[in-house]
UniProtKB/TrEMBL annotation, chains A, B, C, D, E, F:
This is Peroxidase. It comes from Candidatus Nitrosacidococcus tergens. InterPro entries: Hexamer_Tyr-coord_heme_pr_HTHP, HTHP_sf. Pfam families: HTHP (PF11534).
Length: 71, 71, 71, 71, 71, 71
């Protein structure tokens, strides 16, 4: 994965920070499963499962702590 | 999701901070599953499941750390 | 939920801080499932399940970090 | 639960801090399930389950962060 | 495991920090299961499971907090 | 458990810190299940289970935060 996708943890608004946390959470998945097709298929499944959605929100919460701490 | 929903992490009281943590937790879910109808259906299910409720409370706890740290 | 239940994170003793963490954990559940009757029924179930009890203790631990950090 | 069990988070050695973290983790369970008999029965079960033991160790790790931060 | 694989937590860019967090997460697994063949087999399984991928992303998020805090 | 196994959280290198985090994670398990024979049997099982390995890596990540923060 040679592309540059993260150059700074500083964001202009808290909401942009939250959205960066979402990006970080998805990237954490993508490093393990880089196949976009597989990811789309899985997403359509876990997006209808309450436990999976809560788990996803938890990863976002952890990454948001990191982003918020760096402001 | 072009709407602005988070402009500050500063709250006037700790309870407002806790309620902001709840908002952050729900938004973390909504970025993955934006369909309100699906969310309502899932909610009626996991709101009767002890493990799911504890998991939801955990996400709130993590987001509350972030909010509390920013005061 | 218009009642005021959290006015400060400062406690007089560490144990009171721990007990506040328990309150925060239960409130995190109650915002999702406000029906007291349902909560009592679920509690009698998960209070006999080791995984659920450990998960509950984990939420308390996270909230206790927040309380301890604010002293 | 009127007994006093936590008067300070300061410990003399790191190991005593780790053992305090274990106490905190068990207390987190006990506030939800105060019945000692039930707790002993559950313990004999989850002490033979790898996932449950890892989950227990995770709660200890979180509480140990709190204790270590307060030294 | 006598090899030296971690000499510093300081990275030149946030993205390198995130990639170090991925390394830390994998090493955390490898200390428990050092057999590379077993790891490859397991990876091909959990890389197609949404819950496992989210859990992996969560470990990365926690390690990324550590790396980000050390910059 | 009268033996002294933790006298300091300070390590000479980050890698030693990571290995201390592994020790802490295992000790967290051992306080709940001190029977070495049972632990060995469980280990051979969860070392071949992706979810269990990720969970183990997560406990290491949390303990590594504690160790890194104390340097």
């Amino acid at each position: 994965m040679a592309d540059i996708w993260l150059t700074s943890l500083i964001t202009e608004t808290p909401q942009e920070g939250f959205e960066l946390a979402i990006t970080l959470s998805r990237r954490g998945v993508k490093y393990t499963q880089p196949n976009t097709e597989v990811l789309h298929k899985l997403r359509s499944e876990y997006a209808e499962n309450a436990s999976d959605l809560t788990a996803a929100s938890q990863v976002v919460a952890i990454n948001f702590q990191t982003v918020a701490c760096c402001q």
